[in-house]
TrEMBL record, chain B:
Record flagged with keyword Transmembrane: yes
TM region positions: 6-28, 40-57, 91-108, 158-175, 205-230, 251-271, 291-310
Protein name: Simple sugar transport system permease protein
Pfam families hit by this protein: BPD_transp_2
Top-level taxon in the UniProt lineage: Bacteria
Primary location group: membrane
Keywords of the record: Cell membrane, Membrane, Sugar transport, Transmembrane, Transmembrane helix, Transport
Membrane topology: Multi-pass membrane protein
Length: 520, 322
């Protein structure tokens, strides 16, 4: 790697950006050397994509400065970014699907008012680029009919056609097969050898270690540290990503595990893009225990939760609740699960847990509104009964402000979460699936929510806790499984492991390969 | 039915299809850019009124035409402001424009002319009249070619020929120019256009204004070419029929011509044959004949003619994610 400011392709100084109350980027500094592959890692929501969208002119920073090749540059829109030699391959491709490859490449980079000369020039240029970078894709193919791997090539070709010197790739391998990913990395190496600068956003540590020269770690909208890849390890990066936070302490007695409540075997999920998100998950959840699912976000935890909760169907595998098999096909839904005794506190309360425009009392019975106790005459709801019930929940779960007539959006994050938790715990489910219970929740509420979860366990219920907060997992769980790349990469008893070991497992490295006694 | 009648019908179809075709192409530009335009009707109506009123006052069909276009473009800009700049609901904006045009034309018409919402009868010199092509009479005796030349090719006004010329022109703009490529792209995936460094807002306003100009021509045609003055609600749903034709044509220019000619032909038949006797069934009432274009509209809009896939980003304002 070079040294000195003259070698910097990109320099970001003090970049901040907020969306309403959410601070997506806070005072970010970043220096990227010319002719290198620079990785940016961080969990989902760490602010990586926002930062790169600012660099590409898709968003405008609230404050801070961008320097391209040492020159302070204003990038108010994508055109300015393209002129500054920056190209970007977005996570969600920016392609016009009914258009041909050629048309997509030319769009926005035409040479004149008439198309024909532009298309002819692009066709020749594409042929050259294809030969040079093994980016073969037929120029006349309709983009919507191409595989995602080929669509990505079109995106790269678009950037190269615009003669970019700096190429940003946002989670490029999320939708690729391993072979396609390897091919992509070969292309990136080739581009680097020609002196181009590449910024690679990812949350996969394997890729970082394999192809980057330097890596910057982001966490919660802040830049934590920039490391030289050859001098660091996956464990160190994982630790920086997750962060060392003040250890939370939750008063709890040792667990007294009872009989198995939930038996999961060979659970697989292939998503709409054909990517395998769950690759054969097997676990047993017992009554009276909290099973923590740890892992860097995006390794299949969310999908596991959604399949168990009946939000999405599984591709194959079986799940038994107290010995009785559950329907995992498309014909099932979350309501059936609730009926069977599985409650679900979703990871994203805004999208899945609450209707933000509803009053509190309406959300307090959502999903259970069909129950006899909430029903009035004919097809109506018994508003009095629901509101009485809501007031009781407000009292018991200390939801503030204590008004069931307030719009849900007007509650703080912590109190919104309490509304969901009150609703789901209230019926004493046999199994409680909990996703990120304290994301965006203030300290006081975190403690309260943790105590509620432990109390439910002590009543002999089974709890599956998914959280990207390692501290939370360690504080709450009795047993911990770690997920990596759609598989369980390890299982430990909470009392017998430490942060370092879990961090390695989260990076897909199991140092202790001895068989942990699967508690069955 | 003899050849002469068929050719006369064909000519009438062409004249009746013209306002539909102009409005249909207007919708095509707008919707291809991702802005649904349910307000074709309102824009036509406003243009018809403005053209009729101004032609009557100034005595010039041409100034009337310009006034019609201006009125229509004004409404188009309101639609653009609501749906592009303010990112509002395009259907509601379109409906509002229809109501606005319907109310304002009647109100202003009554206030200015006091004729129950009509504009004064236009003299021949204040209208667009049919142009007889040379040698019509001399060719009259040539079999087939003579009547064809007289009834179908010759004898229409300028706007009819203009509308027909607009079809290949639209095709060429859409598929052979940079503007067309970007226009089609912005209706499919505005984010792709934005990240390619092209302004989504400017493109969409461009499309909406073109739609305004074409609706202006369609409206002016109604009051200064087809009729001799403006009547209340004289568009009579033609904007919606044009919309149906657009869907029928799957948002493509040449099929749009075909669909509009079909509607024009149905209308021409309905006008010419007040009662048709079908052997074994009896007399088909005149009302049914006149309702034919509207019935076909319902059939098309109900999706009986195959799946029509609209531009993917149609109807949705462009908001960057988050």
């Amino acid at each position: 790697m070079g040294s000195g400011a003259g070698d910097l392709a990109i320099e970001l100084v003090g970049i901040s950006k907020s969306f309403g109350p959410v601070q997506a980027n806070r005072d970010i500094d970043l220096a990227v050397h010319r002719g290198t592959i620079h990785g940016i890692v961080g969990e989902n929501g760490a602010g990586k994509s926002t930062l790169m969208s600012i660099l590409y002119g898709f968003y405008q920073a609230d404050s801070g400065e961008i320097r391209v090749n040492g020159k302070p540059t204003r990038i108010p829109d994508s055109l300015a970014a393209i002129r500054a030699g920056i190209g970007m391959v977005h996570q969600h491709f920016m392609l016009v699907e009914p258009f041909t490859v050629l048309e997509n490449v030319v769009l926005g980079a035409e040479d004149g008012a008439l198309l024909r000369p532009s298309l002819a020039k692009a066709r020749a240029e594409l042929k050259r680029l294809e030969r040079e970078y093994e980016l073969d894709v037929s120029p006349d193919a309709v983009v919507g009919e191409l595989s995602v791997g080929l669509q990505q090539r079109v995106e790269i070709l678009k950037a190269l056609y615009r003669e970019c010197d700096i190429l940003i790739l946002d989670e490029p391998t999320g939708v690729l097969t391993p072979a396609e990913a390897d091919h992509l990395f070969r292309i990136l190496e080739h581009l680097k050898s020609e002196g181009k600068t590449i910024i690679l956003i990812t949350h996969k540590l394997r890729e970082i270690m394999a192809v980057t020269d330097a890596v910057s770690v982001m966490r919660r909208g802040e830049m934590v540290k920039t490391l030289t890849t050859s001098e660091t390890s996956p464990a160190e990066i994982a630790e920086l990503m997750v962060g060392r936070r003040v250890l939370l302490r939750v008063e709890k007695a040792p667990a007294v595990p009872g009989p198995a409540m939930l038996d999961v075997e060979g659970l697989r999920l292939v998503d709409e893009q054909g990517v395998e998100r769950l690759r054969g998950i097997g676990l047993t959840l017992r009554a009276g225990e909290i099973l923590g699912v740890a892992g860097v976000a995006g390794n299949g935890q969310s999908e596991l939760l959604e399949v168990l909760a009946g939000v999405r169907p599984a591709t194959s595998g079986s799940v038994r609740l107290k010995g009785a098999p559950l329907d995992l096909s498309r014909s099932t839904n979350a309501g059936d699960r609730r009926e069977a005794g599985i409650a679900h506190i979703p990871e994203d309360r805004h999208r899945r847990g609450l209707v933000m425009a509803f009053d509190e009392w309406e959300n307090s019975c959502l999903g259970y509104q069909g129950e006899a106790r909430f029903r009035g005459p004919a097809l109506t709801l018994d508003r009095t009964a629901i509101r009485d019930h809501a007031r009781e929940a407000i009292e018991r779960f200390d939801i503030r402000p204590a008004s069931c007539d307030l719009k849900t959006a007007n509650f703080s994050g912590g109190n919104q979460q309490k509304i969901v938790i009150a609703r789901e715990m209230e019926r004493d489910p046999d199994v409680l699936l909990v996703g990120q219970p304290t994301r965006g929740v203030d300290i006081g509420a975190i403690e309260f929510i943790h105590r509620q979860i432990v109390a439910l366990r002590d009543r002999g219920k089974a709890i599956l806790l998914v959280s990207v907060e390692l501290d939370e997992i360690r504080a709450l769980a009795d047993r911990i499984i770690v997920m990596f790349d759609g598989r369980i990469s390890g299982e430990r008893l909470a009392a017998e492991t430490d942060e370092r070991e879990l961090g390695l497992l989260m990076a897909g490295i199991d140092l202790v390969e001895h068989a942990q006694t699967a508690s069955n | 039915m003899d050849l002469e009648t068929i050719l006369q019908l064909a000519g009438a179809s062409l004249r009746l299809a013209t306002p539909l075709l102009l409005a249909c192409l207007a919708g095509l530009y707008s919707e291809r850019a991702g802005i649904f335009d349910i307000g074709l009707e309102g824009k036509m109506l406003a243009a018809a009124f403005a053209a009729g009123a101004v032609a009557a006052v100034t005595g010039s069909a041409w100034i009337g035409l310009l006034a019609g276009i201006a009125a229509s473009v004004c409404l188009a800009l309101i639609h653009g402001l609501a749906s592009i700049t303010l990112k509002g609901n395009q259907l509601i904006s379109g409906v509002a424009i229809n109501f606005l045009a319907s109310g304002l034309t009647a109100l202003i018409g009554q206030n200015w002319f006091g004729m129950g919402g009509q504009t004064p009868q236009l003299q021949a010199s204040q209208r667009f009249l049919g142009i007889s092509w040379p040698f019509v009479d001399r060719l009259a005796s040539v079999p087939l070619l003579g009547p064809l030349y007289r009834h179908v090719i010759s004898g229409h006004n300028l706007l009819v020929y203009g509308a027909l010329a607009a079809v290949p022109l639209t095709w060429w703009v859409l598929y052979r120019t940079r503007f067309g490529l970007r226009l089609r792209a912005v209706g499919e995936n505005p984010a792709a256009v934005d990240t390619a460094g092209v302004s989504v807002v400017r493109l969409r306003y461009g499309a909406v204004v073109i739609a305004g100009v074409l609706c202006g021509l369609a409206g002016a045609y109604l009051s200064t070419a087809m009729a001799a003055g403006f009547n209340r609600e004289m568009t009579a749903g033609k904007g919606f029929i044009a919309l149906a034709a657009l869907i029928f044509a799957k948002w493509r220019p040449w099929p749009a011509l075909g669909a509009c000619l079909l509607f024009g032909a149905l209308e021409a038949i309905g006008i010419r044959y007040q009662a048709i006797t079908i052997p074994g069934v009896g007399v088909v009432p005149v009302q049914l004949m006149q309702a034919l274009p509207y019935i076909l509209t319902v059939v098309i809009l109900a999706g009986f003619v195959g799946k029509a896939i609209p531009p993917r980003a149609g109807g949705r304002p462009y908001v960057k994610e988050r």
